[in-house]
Amino acid sequence: MRPVARAVALLAALALSACQPQPDADIVTATGHDAFYVWPGVRPAKTLQPKTLYLLDGEVRRGGTTRLERLRMGVPRLPGKTVWLVVRADRLDWNEATYAAIFNDLRQWEEAGNRVAGLQIDFDAATRGIDGYARFLRDLRRRLTRNWQLSITGLMDWSAHGDPRDLAQLSQIIDEVVVQTYQGRTTIEGYDAYFRRMQDFPIPFRVALVEGGTWRAPAMLAQHPQFRGYVVFLLAASK
After folding, report:
1. Tens digits of per-residue pLDDT, 155-189?
2. Could you tell me the CA-to-CA distances from 99 to 30, 68, 215 in Å, in that order?
3. What is the pTM of this model?
4. What structural domains does the chain harbor?
5. How many other C-beta atoms lie within 10 A of the C-beta of residue 235?
6. CB-CB contact of 154 with 180 (8 Å)
7. Among 28, 103, 120, 156, which is most exposed with the fewest C-beta within 10 angstroms?
């Protein structure tokens, strides 16, 4: 084999191996879990027994007038399950109509007989922008009635590397963080290094896994006093 061809073959082999699950990691399946992210169009398999559901209610998108773009039609009754309504946000300059629409949805789900835990904000706050995000969340917490909790998603980077003072601020405002370990449909590589830096994370947290991704629990998780379990992001409708 010529040197150039040998080099190309080696690069191809390395690229292929990088795409394969690590030998000490397991493929994430929904079986055995009881908390799930369920986006519109996705139905949990009938064999699952969810206790907690994070349901995407709508989005606050960048561009144009700030408003809630609802993505879910109807309000089903889900007996025996705890429901979090999720709002995915690309911007934080919310107006009064946006807040009113979100709070009205929370009330409708509650009035339909559901056990509504509260609201989760899915916003990709940069590590250096946690302080500004905290100001937004403090105002949101002030507006929420006390029977609704406040949850946020968290990137592994700021969960592990965020300024302790900013994280301490958040701990006084929110009830939980769900740490995202995936991007798209793929588990982020090197997640164990991030979790090693979370030994002193001051906020109750869950860990979000993507269905079909790879995962081997870092040793520190089971011993962490703030760890509350997993949430699996479901990808496909059951058949």
Report:
1. 998 888 888 888 888 999 999 999 999 998 999 99
2. 33, 8, 37
3. 0.87
4. 24-233 (3.20.20.80)
5. 14
6. yes
7. 103
Q: Encoding tokens for residue 175?
A: 């009830």
What would the two tokens of residue 141 be? Answer: 């917490």
How are beta strands 149-155 and 115-122 bridged, if at all? Answer: parallel
Per-residue tokens: 121: 């904000």
Pairwise CA distance, residues 93 & 98, whole Å: 10
Closest CA to 137 of 154, 161, 117: 154
Residue-wise DSSP of 28-62: --STT--EEEE-TT----TT---SEEEEEEEEE-S
- As a whole number of angstroms, the distance between CA 141 and CA 225 comes to 24
Q: What whole-number distance in Å separates Cα of residue 150 and Cα of residue 235?
A: 25
Return the number of other C-beta atoms located less than 10 Å from residue 122's C-beta.
Answer: 18
